């Protein structure tokens, strides 16, 4: 097939993340199978506007917000009539390609997650309220009646609430370390947290829970891995047993994960929660908040879900940690996720089976606010 994917960033972007890794892994495999693949994304300083990467072609146009208009202009000038399928990836702000691709190419939406509660943490008032209760419901609702793929049941449920019903769930991918770290678990009860130090990841909840749990386990400690704008403030107020390590290299991160007895995750919302899979792949189970995305990855990795409250987390740490210290779980292949070969095959099957020939339209779909 001739496939065009639209995404706000490609892997060369300095702010690229898990969604861009997913895109690169899938597109490279499709290209290797003989498909003609193009990715349209935002411009990157110092990177060419057009470049071949791992067998597929990357088109870079526009800024963080300008990419949406530039992608449409590129399609009108250079894309129309060249592709069989367009995959429209939404990262909070959609491209709405299903409304302007008008040449008979099949269009399918792709959502890693919705924003919802994250608006409150990432945008100032009143933008946060308008984003959650006005803009996002209307943006997502415009995909009602169009085929969409998502990476977790949590994201599918969120899309359903917004009126998008034709949703196919595809697996999350992960590449475990080629050589597992040769380390032993710590001699004292040890947790690890790995995320950016930003409000919606709720690192402060972990620090509070550890402080409470130390009343029962006085030698409990947690390694807090990750950079971010709140790092220095959190570090300056770190209670006993809480150590902020900042950003570390990948090898160090995996080693610390393997040495810890449990990984904790407290995000308000994720698409999947890949860090849970990373921990499980080196034999470290997760205690996580029962939040969208995290519940999917934690269940797949045989971890423990707890209510979204530091007191609940503090209760469950001493309840499960002694057993995991005594009998550490074995490393789990792919940590509950899947190999990228499997992911690429299943996404392609979903695209092939569920994409439809679009009819140009301006339609708002069924408007349903968040639950």
Q: Provide the structure class.
A: alpha/beta
- In total, the number of strands is 14
What oligomeric state do the depicted chains represent?
single chain
Helix count equals 13
Give the helix proportion (percent range).
25-40%
Strand order of the largest sheet: 3-4-2-1-5-6-7-8
Biggest pleated sheet: 8 strands, mixed
Describe the structure.
The protein has 13 helices and 14 strands. It is of the alpha/beta class and 371 residues long. An 8-stranded mixed beta sheet has the order 3-4-2-1-5-6-7-8, with helices on both faces. A 6-stranded parallel beta sheet has the order 11-10-9-12-13-14, sandwiched between helices. Helix 7 links the parallel strand 9 (190-194) and strand 10. Helix 1 (18-32) packs across helix 13 (340-354) and helix 7 packs across helix 12. The radius of gyration is 21 Å and the shape is globular.
List the helices and strands and how they pair.
Elements: E1 2-6, H1 18-32, E2 36-41, E3 50-53, E4 56-60, H2 67-79, E5 85-90, H3 97-100, E6 106-111, H4 118-122, H5 127-141, E7 148-150, H6 153-161, E8 167-169, E9 190-194, H7 203-213, E10 221-225, H8 231-236, E11 242-246, H9 250-259, E12 262-265, H10 274-281, E13 286-289, H11 294-300, E14 304-306, H12 310-326, H13 340-354
Parallel strand pairs: 1-2, 1-5, 2-4, 5-6, 6-7, 7-8, 9-10, 9-12, 10-11, 12-13, 13-14
Antiparallel strand pairs: 3-4
Keywords for this entry:
36% helix, eight-stranded mixed sheet, alpha/beta, globular, 14 strands, six-stranded parallel sheet, 371 residues, single chain, 17% strand
């Amino acid at each position: 097939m001739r496939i065009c994917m639209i995404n706000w960033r490609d892997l060369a972007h300095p702010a690229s993340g898990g969604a861009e890794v997913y895109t690169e892994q899938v597109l490279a495999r499709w290209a290797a199978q003989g498909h003609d693949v193009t990715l349209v994304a935002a411009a990157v300083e110092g990177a060419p506007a057009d470049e071949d990467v791992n067998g597929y072609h990357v088109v870079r146009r526009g800024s963080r917000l300008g990419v949406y208009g530039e992608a449409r202009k590129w399609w009108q000038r250079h894309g129309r009539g060249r592709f069989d399928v367009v995959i429209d990836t939404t990262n909070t702000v959609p491209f709405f390609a299903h409304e302007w691709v008008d040449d008979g190419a099949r269009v399918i939406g792709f959502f890693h997650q919705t924003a919802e509660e994250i608006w409150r943490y990432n945008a100032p008032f009143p933008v946060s309220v308008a984003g959650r209760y006005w803009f996002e419901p209307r943006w997502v609702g415009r995909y009602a009646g169009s085929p969409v793929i998502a990476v977790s049941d949590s994201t599918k449920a969120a899309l359903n609430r917004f009126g998008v019903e034709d949703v196919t769930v595809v697996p999350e991918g992960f590449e475990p370390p080629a050589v597992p770290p040769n380390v032993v678990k710590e001699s004292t009860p040890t947790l690890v947290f790995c995320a950016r130090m930003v409000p919606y990841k709720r690192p402060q909840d972990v620090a509070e829970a550890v402080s409470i749990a130390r009343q029962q386990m006085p030698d409990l400690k947690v390694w807090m891995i990750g950079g971010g704008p709140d790092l220095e403030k959190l570090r300056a107020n770190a209670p006993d047993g809480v150590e902020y390590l900042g950003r570390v290299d990948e090898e160090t991160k995996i080693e610390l994960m393997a040495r810890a007895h449990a990984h904790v995750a407290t995000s308000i919302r994720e698409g999947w929660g890949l860090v849970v899979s990373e921990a499980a792949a080196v034999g470290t189970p997760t205690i996580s908040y029962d939040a969208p995305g995290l519940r999917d990855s934690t269940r797949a990795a045989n971890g423990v879900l707890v209510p979204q409250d530091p007191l609940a987390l503090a209760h469950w740490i001493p309840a499960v940690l002694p057993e995991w210290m005594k009998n550490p779980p074995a490393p789990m292949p792919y940590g509950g996720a899947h190999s990228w070969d499997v992911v690429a095959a299943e996404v392609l099957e979903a695209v092939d089976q569920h994409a439809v020939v679009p009819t140009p339209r301006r339609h708002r779909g069924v408007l349903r606010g968040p639950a």
